[in-house]
Specification:
The protein is of the alpha/beta class and 227 residues long. It contains seven helices and seven strands. The protein has one domain: Rossmann fold (3-Layer(aba) Sandwich), CATH 3.40.50.720. Helix 1 packs across helix 2, helix 3 runs parallel beside helix 7 and helix 5 packs across helix 6.
Length: 227
């Protein structure tokens, strides 16, 4: 099934992708598209974490959702979807809320962490976990309440602008003496409204795809993405 991937990047690079272990936290708008891209690009070893169940309000933007799986576990539905695409894929699905009390129970041998969760405290804990265990991490910032998906970019956390979530995370990272130069996906568009976060499919979808594009290029090093 991966013939066209191998023809494009070569078998040696494809083997590197298959051997890469990824932790993905959050299977929502951004995380769902990242998960889809991981599966279809040949990643074989993925751990996914999310406590939520699918809600009818997720249907407008979350790729794993449909009218038949409302109220079902996101990670279990995602795991089932992955097997329908690649029956040999290895998915560890953890239906849990990740925080400082349980994060150190995770395996430590991941090559990449994708932070696609919504909780600021969990984002900080993931950066700490990645730093201590020398794991590469890329974190999703706010893409809700935006309409212009062309403004979604990969940047360094310390270079973000127009993003209230990134601003809060930068302060926490600085206060905890952590690296503020980590890659993040964010929108340079100002939120068009305040309060409750609403979203189209476009910005979260592109954010998830950009995350996996960044990881693939970091692995195979065909060209270096500048951030």
């Amino acid at each position: 099934m991966y013939e066209r991937v191998i023809n494009l990047i070569g078998n040696e690079n494809f083997q590197k992708i298959q051997n890469t272990k990824v932790l993905l936290v959050g299977i929502g708008g951004v995380g769902g598209f990242a998960f889809e891209a991981l599966i279809r690009s040949g990643f074989q070893n993925i751990t996914i974490i999310d406590k939520d169940k699918i809600d009818i309000t997720n249907l407008n933007r979350q790729i794993i959702t449909n009218n038949k799986n409302i109220n079902l576990s996101k990670v279990k539905i995602a795991q089932k979807r992955s097997k329908s695409i690649n029956k040999n894929i290895k998915i560890k699905a953890l239906e849990m809320f990740l925080d400082k009390n349980n994060i150190n129970d995770l395996d430590k041998d991941f090559d990449f962490i994708i932070d696609a969760c919504d909780t600021l405290e969990t984002k900080l804990e993931l950066i700490k976990f990645a730093t201590i265990n020398k794991i590469k991490i890329i974190s999703a910032m706010g893409v809700g309440n935006r309409i212009d998906a062309s403004q979604v970019k990969i940047k360094r956390l310390d270079k973000t602008n127009n993003d209230p979530l990134a601003r809060k995370l930068r302060k926490l990272v600085k206060d905890n003496k952590l690296n503020s130069k980590i890659p993040v996906v964010c929108s340079e568009e100002l939120p068009i409204k305040k309060g409750k976060v609403d979203s189209l499919i476009t910005s979260p979808g592109i954010a998830g795809l950009l995350i996996v594009n960044y990881i693939i290029n970091d692995i195979i090093k065909v060209y270096q993405l500048k951030i």
